[in-house]
Amino acid sequence: MTSRKLAKIYHSCMILPYFLSWIVFSYVVFAFLGMENGFINNSILIPLGFDEISFYTEPKYWPIILFIVNTIKHAAYGSILYLSAIVGLDPEYFELARIYGANKWQQITRITIPLISNVIIILIVLNLGNILTADFGLFYNIPLRSNYLRETTQIIDIYIYEVFQNGAAELGKSTAAGLFKSVFGMIMVLSTNYVVRKIDPEKALF
Amino acid sequence: MLFLSTNSILRVYAISIFVTVVGTILSLLIMSMYAYPISRNNFRYRKQFTFYIFFTMLFGGGLIPWYVICTQVLRLKNTVWALIVPYLFNAFYVIVIRTFFKTTIHESIIESAKLDGASEIRIYISIVLPLSLPVLASIALFMSINYWNDWWLSTILQSDTTWINLQYAMYRVLVNATYLAQLGGPASGYTQSELAKMPTETVRMAMCAFAMGPIILAYPFFQRYFIKGLTIGSIKG
């Protein structure tokens, strides 16, 4: 980044969402998707002559909405690991590439990505280890507990919570689901750690 | 809670501030007190104690056992401590602090303090803590964000509205309003006068900005600690 001050401002703006709670996010998402005053319906779809979309009753839009919201919140946090890897690269590689006339895009695809591929692989593998651990706050708050959206927004954590709220009769069922999740999660973490150790012993958690 | 009066907004705001301040201070104290012994090489059982917390990161009992411990053993249900105690101890942060103690605080400093006749507690308070201010500041930032943004503990451990915090109150207002809009008035079981008191969307969005306030204001000052905190914590070793 050429201008340090500008880089800092970008960075600050990107990390800020990480500090906001899911509740605040659910308000913001509601401000975008709501029926009466929502930004997308009133400022984009209606002026362009499309029909309104009732997002909170249509399950089919939610996988992509949840994906976007989650990315906005966590992108900067994840990027810090890559940033520290890229900063650690030897600047001579880039200088040499510039002398040979490589443009920015070529520098990215030919130098940066191959050199940090280890970090990329390890982060993917580690995330696979947490595959069952969904963000409860994301799935619980962003769809505003709408009953219509169950099809695409129900996850195991919310199932456990809801069965638990049903009362004493179903406690066993909920406990069993929780235990299954814990055991499965532990197996996943241990096995991914094993794989990571095979790729790069330095990066393994233990 | 269908509607938040000025009084109840101030109350939940005060609860949030209290929980954040007290929780952050207590958790820093407890976590660093756990981290210090397991960072010292002459503590014989440090491996066992480290594994004891490390295991909690790998495997947890799940929601119901956690709930039973909180309500039956610790008796937290419907008290303000329910919003503080469950987050006091975070295994990951303890290991981060331990790694920092191990790598930055040299054995010889502790040795020389001991030669001068300082007790273990004295060494911890007047040497180890001041030297590890950077890591403590980072952890304090993370903990206060955790406490301020929490809504989960109020959801599950508060059955009435006496001790709920700001985030949960906001959640209740938004969900109830959407629910009512879907049901359409009378079918919801609320009386007409109660419905009339429901905050408009503008008021709700204003509340949202109000809740974000402290974080937006504090954020520029703490940003450097945040980045430092992320890169500081290698949990190996």
Describe the model:
The complex is a heterodimer of chains A (206) and B (237). Chain A has 206 residues and is mainly α. Chain A has a single domain, classed as MetI-like (MetI-like fold). In chain A, 70% of the residues lie in helices and 0% in strands. Chain A has 11 helices and no strands. Chain A is flat and about 65 Å long. Chain B is mostly helical and 237 residues long. Chain B has a single domain, classed as MetI-like fold. Chain B is 72% helix and 0% strand. Chain B is built from 11 helices and no strands. In chain B, helix 1 (6-39) runs antiparallel to helix 7 (133-149). The longest helix of chain B is centred in the N-terminal third of the chain and has 34 residues, at 6-39. Mean pLDDT of chain B is 80; it is low at 233-237. The chains are: A mainly alpha (206), B mainly alpha (237). Chains A and B meet through helix 1, helix 2, helix 4, helix 8 and helix 10 of A and helix 3, helix 7, helix 9 and helix 11 of B.
Assigned CATH class of chain A:
Mainly Alpha
The protein's oligomeric status is heterodimer
Structural class of chain B: mainly alpha
Quick one: how many beta strands of chain B? 0
CATH architecture of chain B: Orthogonal Bundle
Shape descriptor of chain A reads flat
Key structural traits:
heterodimer, A: mainly alpha, MetI-like fold, 0% strand, flat, B: 237 residues, mainly alpha
Briefly summarize what is shown.
Chain A is mainly α. Helix content of chain A is 70%, strand content 0%.
Write the topology of this structure:
The complex is a heterodimer of chains A (206) and B (237).
Chain A: H1 4-19, H2 22-33, H3 39-45, H4 62-87, H5 91-99, H6 104-115, H7 117-129, H8 136-141, H9 150-153, H10 156-165, H11 171-199
Chain B: H1 6-39, H2 46-58, H3 63-73, H4 91-104, H5 107-115, H6 120-131, H7 133-149, H8 152-157, H9 166-183, H10 192-196, H11 201-232
Helix pairs in contact in B: 1-4, 1-7, 2-4, 5-6, 7-11, 9-11
